[in-house]
Each structure stands twice: as C-alpha cells, then as structure tokens.
Amino acid sequence: MAGRSQDKLNSAMREVQSAGIKGSLSIVQLDVTDEQSIKEAARRVHEEHGRLDVLVNNAAAGNIDPDAKTRFTISLTTNVIGPAMLAEAFRPLLLGGDNPYSVYVSSGTGSLSMAADPAGVTYFPNEDAYRASKAALNMVAIKEWKDFGSKGLKVFAFCPGFVISNIRGTSEDARTGGGKAGDPMVSGQSLLDIIEGRRDADDGKFVHKDGVYPW
Ligand SMILES: NC(=O)c1ccc[n+]([C@@H]2O[C@H](COP(=O)([O-])OP(=O)(O)OC[C@H]3O[C@@H](n4cnc5c(N)ncnc54)[C@H](OP(=O)(O)O)[C@@H]3O)[C@@H](O)[C@H]2O)c1
User: Fold this and answer.
1) In terms of CB atoms within 10 Å, which end of the chain has fewer, N or C?
2) Which residue has its alpha carbon closest to ligand 1 atom 48?
3) Counting atoms of ligand 1 from 1, which one is nearest the CA of 33?
4) What SS3 class is residue 3?
C-alpha cells in the first residue's frame, strides 16, 4: 500500500490490521509526482518481493481551481504523468509474474464519447482539467494494453462510481456529494472483481461495476 504521507499510511495500516483481515501488509511512501520516490518504491518492491502481481494506479487530484493553468497543471501532473511514470517503473516487475494486472482508476467523466453527447452532463464547475486528465489517463491505459497485452499484461481503466471520498473536498457536503455519493466499499469490491479475474472478459476496456463505458 503506497501513499505520500507516512502518517496517513501508518493510520491506514492500523485500520486494516484492526479489521482482522488475513494476510500481510507493507507500506511504502510514494508521491506520484516525484520520480525519485517512484523509483525508490519500485526498487524496494523488487528487493523485498521480487515481483508484482497487480498495480492499481489510484491516486488523483480533483482540482477545480478557477485559474486554468493551475488546475490543468495539477490535474495532468498527478492524474496522468504520475500514473504513466509509475506504470513504467513497475512494469518490469509486473511482466515478471504469471498473471499480472495493471488497473488505472479513471472516471466515467473522462469518457470522450459520453462528454461529446449533447445530452452529456456537467458535473461541477471548472471540471475541464479533471475530465481531460481522466481522458488522457484512459489513453495511457489503452497504449499499455496495446503494447504489453501480448506479453500477458491485463490492463483495465476502471471507474469506481460516484462514492464518498475526499476527491471533491473535505467538508461533509463535499465528501458525500451533497448526500448523493455511494459507498466506496462497493468500488473496492468491483476492483477486487478485476484483480481476482472475474472481469477478464473486459481486459483492455473501460469498466465500471455494471459493465463497460465507451472511451
Ligand atoms: N470518489 C468518487 O466519486 C470518484 C469517482 C470517479 C473516479 N474517482 C477516482 O477514484 C480514485 C480515488 O479517489 P478517491 O475518490 O478515493 O479520492 P481521495 O479520497 O481524494 O483519494 C485520492 C488519493 O490520492 C492520493 N494522492 C493525491 N496526490 C497524490 C500524490 N501526488 N502522490 C500520492 N498520492 C496522492 C491522496 O493522498 P492524500 O491523502 O495524501 O491526499 C488520496 O489518498 C481517483 O483516481 C479518483 O479520480 C473517484
């Protein structure tokens, strides 16, 4: 489990352990915008485990700053360049395994087809940068699937659905999307379905809990 804040990692680890979940868990500090920390994390995983079965690129920023340069820079740096660097650094470890998975946590808001639909929805102000970043992330996923699918790597872009989290801000209203956001445990279950092979028929696609989104 990776994260940029050691304190948050420690408390998340305590939470998982106190839930009595079986298995072992290690934490590694990693900032997806910091190439050195990515390389160091990959080195550690290589040294301590020798291979990687699943990489979930989950980190993202939901920046809606009124200044276009600010929100585009933050969104593209964290949501596109970071996952692309991460995927590149960890890919040799993935390709060393028997049945590797690479999952990019994207968003239905990044679907170009759905955005271009005249009936398509605007979800929040200044959403252009976040949505553009998820569209670009989808291309990163497509390219990885095209380039490494033949080497056995299964690649998914995955939308976790509209669920409670900090991505819209930390106030109660923002976290719950005005009370409309769903339970992130459901997103976790859908992710587990991917990495345990129950979505293998959708390899190379943009999946969500109930099916597949158009790119
Ligand atoms: N929640 C939704 O409704 C929804 C809908 C569609 C897609 N998604 C996607 O789901 C994924 C998870 O987001 P979430 O909803 O759980 O939001 P979240 O609570 O804001 O989680 C995002 C995580 O990314 C981490 N992060 C941000 N910048 C980072 C960096 N530079 N290096 C390392 N970690 C970094 C954050 O770490 P810190 O805790 O240190 O800030 C945080 O733990 C994202 O890809 C998001 O776009 C969410």
Assistant:
1) N
2) 160
3) 31
4) strand
